[in-house]
Amino acid sequence: MGEKKETKKIVFYISLIIIAVMAVWSVAFNDSFTAVSNAAFAFFTTDFGWLYLLAMIVFLVFIVFIAFSKFGKIRLGGDDSKPEYSNMTWFGLLFGCGMGVGLVFWGVAEPLNHYLNPQGMEGATAESADFAMKSFFTHWGILPWANYAIIGLALAYFMFRKNKKGLISSILEPLIGEKLANGWLGKLIDILAVFATVAGIVTSLGLGTMQINAGFNRLFGLPVNLTVQIAIIAIVSVIYITSAVSGIEKGIKIISDANLYVAIGLMAVCFLVGPKIEILNSFVNGMGQYIGDFIPDALRVSTYGDNSWLGSWRLFYWAWFIAWAPFVGVFIARISKGRTIKEFVMGVVLVPAMASCIWGAVFGNLGINLAEKGILAVEELQQVVANPEVGLFMVLQEYPLGFVLSIIAIVSLCAFFITSANSGVYVLSMLTTDGNINPPNSKKILWGIIQSVMAIGLLMAGGLKPLQTISLAAAFPFIFIMFAACAALYKTLKKEKV
């Protein structure tokens, strides 16, 4: 019995050792860590860019096929099970976990970036504005959510319908057998999932902290320095660890519900004070271009030409979303008991993708409109591109109610930040307690502290970007794990009587 208990803790202990080594390396030897992470990422995106592009399309095709096949009416749980959360709460939880911080961070800065520095055309033109919206929709639309849905659907199915553990390795049991799934291969997969999750959450914590600091600096003159950033992390950490300890039903749900209304309110007011006709035209035109060029854009890679834009944006995002797939997938699975497969896919893929595109049209055009109308000079807009954490606040202040909107944006950012972090704590605790869907509070507190300490250490070393980069390289095997998850899910679904 003692030996079995120790075996269960292997994922926890080995994950902690790997994360500790990475943390020390990235903080104490930042230059070598940066060099190695950049080389690894460049190798994967240069030599396997084609695979990232293909994989994202395969995930979408598979998930749509499963949803609209005869398997779509199968419930994630018993045949008479009902969803644990209302549609609004469910959507708020998965959106906050999967995209929230990223959309607030990049909503203004990314479209401006594509507008000023488009691929293969002149910048700061009407054509580059169209390109900016189409690119944003491609990066934040249906493909990332289809990628999250692969792990989410497979794990929810095996956890709640087949009573398997809440581990990534459980999904692959139909392919590799129970012995390997519970043995060294399963442990390796779960350790990789833990590392990808920690790296992703810590990077988001760091980026979110920098943006909150930039907002306070812009609004109240609070200095941008390490002391303020450590204070922000400390305060936010207390909130997200407390909410994670109180459980999904209480703390995480309350913050997520409140933030959904705050974010919708912020977006609605920004639309009303912003360039309404331009936003609507841009959304309609952008969606038309996005849908019309969907396959060519999703698979576009130059055989002999320059792929630097592709590597900096699309391949970087695809690698990042695949790196986040274990974390977001596990959390989405945990909150989706009782849904049908079709309902799950529609809710996880279609609704958040549409919300992300609407967000991009509103906030992206707040920035692009300032350039087109000559309100901000190109040099000032280049500042937004160079410092994306400041971009949102620079742009909002040029509109009516700018100060109030900036305050609301900081509140929303903090709430998204907390939702991501406490979801991460929950997932890490599940993955390191043998898939326990209600992990002990001691684990949640420990993982919460580890995340915060690592974020502070990396901010001190200026090493956020290298950690993000190494996590993308480390997550490369997840492409194959997710292909295997598709095969395992389909193999098992074929045995269902539907």
Automatic annotation (TrEMBL):
Pfam families: BCCT (PF02028). InterPro entries: BCCT_transptr (IPR000060). It is found in: Cell membrane. The chain crosses the membrane at residues 12-29, 49-68, 89-109, 142-160, 188-208, 228-248, 260-277, 315-332, 344-363, 403-433, 445-464, 470-490. Signal peptide: none annotated. It comes from the Bacteria. It is a multi-pass membrane protein. Keywords: Cell membrane, Membrane, Transmembrane, Transmembrane helix, Transport. Belongs to the BCCT transporter (TC 2.A.15) family. This is BCCT family transporter. It comes from Bariatricus massiliensis. The lineage of its organism: Bacteria, Bacillati, Bacillota, Clostridia, Lachnospirales.
